[in-house]
Write a structure and sequence with these properties.
alpha+beta
Length: 149
Amino acid sequence: MKILLTEDVKKLGKKGEIVDVSDGYAKNFILPKKLGIEANKAVMNEWQVKKGSEENRKRKEEEEAKALAKELTGKKVVIRTKAGDGGRLFGSITSKDVADAAEKQLGLKVDKKKIQIPSTIKGVGEYTVTIKLHAKAAAEICLKVENDG
């Protein structure tokens, strides 16, 4: 019997998948616990439409992220902070600092968890920072740290 899963079922499949199970397993376990529904023609058609629209949404998100990454690549963000002799900072620059500066200067609201700083920034200078916008799209921006003293 073909079943469209409405919940994740261990060792069987994830929500939204169509699986083939024995009649007894479907009638005695899957259907009574509302873990899935029988995959008849109407359900299959609805599933195909939903799957197609989900793929279109994902493709559109990916294209938007790639376009934004292309636009952002090469942009410069400047952070001014206090530094001592020799350009050493009092503290370090974190991904939160970069996210705040990017929001103010570029108008881009980025989650600090998506910002990848190559190493700890503890000095004045220019650094390359990667912003992961999507699984398949990332932008590299130039981060310039200046002395505010």
